Amino acid sequence: MRIFLSIFGTLIFLASAKFGYCLLIEDKLNGAEFVSLIIAFAIIGLILSFASEIQEFSIAGNIVKLKEVKRDAEKSISELKSARIETFRFLLSLAKRHPGGFSDSGTVDGRVNDFWSLHDQIVAFNCEDELARNLLEVVGVLLQGQLSSISHSSDAVRSKYHGKNKTPKPSQLTIEALDNDSVELAAKRKVAGGDQAKIKEMLVVGLEEYKKLYELRGKYQNKM
């Protein structure tokens, strides 16, 4: 960085010297103005060359403290990032709560869509590493919720996993949820109006969400 600034400062000085000389030749500047111009750009070039080391300089009696300004800016950026992380952490704690109102008895947990929106923001702001543990906790809760939502339309899933703290592999859950006998039993309970094709469509949607959450959990488990 120091070398780059030195080269840049030198180029600025040389360019200004050439520009000033051209103006001098064309009588656009007199000798005193030319000297003032060269001195001014020489100072600017020196400031750029030693910017990483200069503590402060004065312009028309006003002191500009470079390192102090830089330090304050870095502190503010750090504080903003910390506040952003804590805000995300708080929102993740809320993401575990069930939304108000009545459930629509669908195969997707009512908290999942909001979680994905929040997760996208966390990724966009590059906060995953700091929040990996919180994300893992929330995903674990949502996986259980998603399994429960699927069980509303699958007798096989409900009988095997209801009340148990288990999260089967997506491939295994798919076989169990789409079992023809299980779908037929759900139809007899008038799930989706007794339409077996619609029940399967609903289950596929729920299973896809379950798979996404399951894979995300694996990602954050590897970060621990």
Task: Provide the descriptors you would attach to this structure in a database record.
single chain, 224 residues, mainly alpha, 2 domains, two-stranded antiparallel sheet, 2 strands, 72% helix, rod-shaped, transmembrane, transmembrane helix, membrane
Main beta-sheet annotation: 2 strands, antiparallel
Strand order of the largest sheet: 1-2
What is the string of helix and strand elements?
HHEEHHHHHHH
What is the total domain count? 2
The portion of residues assigned to helices is: over 70%
| Coarse structural class | mainly alpha
Shape: rod-shaped
- What's the rounded overall pLDDT mean? 81
Present the secondary structure layout.
Blueprint: H1 2-25, H2 31-49, E1 56-59, E2 62-65, H3 66-95, H4 112-124, H5 128-151, H6 155-161, H7 170-177, H8 180-188, H9 196-223
Antiparallel strand pairs: 1-2
Helix pairs in contact: 1-2, 3-4, 3-5, 4-5, 5-6, 5-9, 7-9
Outline of the structure:
The protein is mainly alpha-helical and 224 residues long.
Detailed description of the structure:
With 224 residues, the protein is mainly alpha-helical. It has two domains: 2-54; 81-223, no CATH class. It contains nine helices and two strands. It has a two-stranded antiparallel ribbon with strand order 1-2. Strand 1 (56-59) and strand 2 form a beta hairpin. Helix 1 runs antiparallel to helix 2. The protein is rod-shaped, with a radius of gyration of 32 Å. It starts with a helix and ends with a helix. Residues 59-63 have low confidence and may be disordered. Keywords: Membrane, Transmembrane, Transmembrane helix. The chain crosses the membrane at residues 32-51.
